[in-house]
Write a structure and sequence with these properties.
With 389 residues, the chain is an all-alpha fold. The chain has helices spanning 10-23, 28-42, 48-60, 65-106, 111-122, 124-143, 147-166, 171-186, 191-211, 213-226, 235-246, 252-264, 272-304, 308-313, 315-341, 346-360, 366-382.
């Protein structure tokens, strides 16, 4: 913290980060803007260079980057107690709202509520495509230095897209594998360490899958919080196979509703995992899934915040992300296929087409598109349109 900036009180941290947690619609870009406005521009608590370095470092880490940035900012202001207080205040408002809405949509809601869910969920596949397109540009520019790197980038992108549609719960191994391949390619001396990471993941997966029940839910949440690269939307393909096909906690329509809720509520998109947890094991499952998904972010900051400058410039970390990142982008794009295939009514397909046009031409934002589609769905239900089962 700058020497001339007074340290904020715990009450101030709680209030300011809680406010961002309540109004933080729009995903990571909005969260970064709000945090920078609070901590750099208005309050002068954090130097601009330090904030930008933290943005870069949190993008190297797996998991929800904007959540980790909020925890880091609170850590800079109040140490570990500040990180727990500010990070919790950032996460909890949206989490409480998404669990309440999830309980409503997963119960026996009136037809107009079901219609709103069916309408919002209809455009989720378009949101996935828009998210992947937005991420492709910067990622491609980083890779476009040599023909060999461009070729590997394309291969990683395709691997992620194919894995999403064909491998289901094994997608996380493809993400780790692409990162390991890129790391080994650039630094032969690190090949053994990379292979060790890749081989440990199947053991963890087998142990979690064998347990079933809460252990399986915890493994799904852990993948979301600790093994996801490439932005918040990569959690969708990581969760879908587990929640729908592997364990049958949700139907396709319910999962689409959960993704729409995670996008339309404030705070991180990772909140979606709480709806999956609620479908699997009620309120206790929702709280367990959220705890497991967000815990790695707190651990990363508590254990590594003082080393962020080194992490940001560490060649091994950058190399791993240059492999896992394109694979994650491909996974996000590939997720649009099963998400669109889950739609069952013609009017939903029409909404998907309209949402794709609005999002990909830049005429509407994600939240506005989801809310608008939800309103159309509610009206369609009131007019007697058929609803997905």
């Amino acid at each position: 913290m700058p020497a001339d900036a007074p340290a904020p009180s715990p009450g101030t941290i709680l209030r300011e980060f809680g406010r961002i947690g309540c109004v933080g619609f729009g995903g990571p870009p909005a969260h970064v803007t709000l945090l920078r406005d609070l901590c750099v521009a208005r309050r002068g608590w954090i130097a601009a260079d330090d904030f930008e370095h933290a943005v870069a470092a949190t993008n190297v880490l797996p998991g929800p980057a904007s959540t980790q940035l909020a925890i880091w900012c609170a850590w800079r202001l109040g140490g570990l107690p500040g990180a727990l207080l500010g990070g919790g205040a950032f996460i909890l408002p949206g989490l409480a709202l998404v669990i309440a809405l999830g309980a409503l949509f997963l119960g026996a809601p009136p037809s107009w509520v079901r219609g709103a869910g069916a309408g919002a969920s209809a455009v989720v596949a378009a949101v996935a495509v828009q998210a992947s397109v937005a991420l492709m540009g910067p990622s491609w520019r980083r890779a476009a230095t040599t023909p060999a790197r461009r070729a590997r980038w394309i291969a990683y992108l395709l691997a992620g897209g194919v894995a999403t549609t064909l491998l289901g719960p094994w997608l996380v191994l493809v993400l780790l594998g692409c990162g390991a391949v890129e790391l080994a390619w650039r630094r032969a001396a690190g090949a053994r360490a990379a292979a060790g990471v890749e081989l440990s993941a199947p053991a963890l997966l087998a142990a979690a899958a064998a347990g079933g029940g809460l252990l399986a839910l915890a493994w799904t949440a852990f993948k979301v919080g600790a093994l996801s690269y490439g932005g918040g939307f990569v959690i969708v393909p990581l969760m879908q196979a587990d929640a729908v096909q592997e364990h049958g906690w949700m139907t396709d329509g319910e999962f689409l509703n959960a993704v729409a809720l995670g996008q339309a509520t404030p705070g991180p998109v990772v909140h979606t995992v709480a709806v999956v947890g609620y479908a699997a094991h009620g309120l206790g499952g929702a709280l367990l899934a959220a705890l497991v998904a967000f815990a790695p972010s707190f651990w990363f900051i508590a254990l590594g915040a003082e080393r962020f400058d080194r992490l940001r410039s560490l060649p091994a970390a950058q190399a791993f992300l240059d492999g896992a990142g394109p694979a994650a982008i491909g996974a996000i794009a590939g997720a649009a296929i099963p998400l669109a295939a889950a739609l069952s009514e013609p009017w939903q397909l029409a909404l998907l087409a309209a949402g794709a046009v609005a999002l990909l031409t830049g005429r509407a934002g994600v939240v506005a598109t989801l809310l608008g589609a939800g309103a159309v769905g509610a009206l369609a239900a009131l007019a007697g349109a058929p609803l997905p089962g």
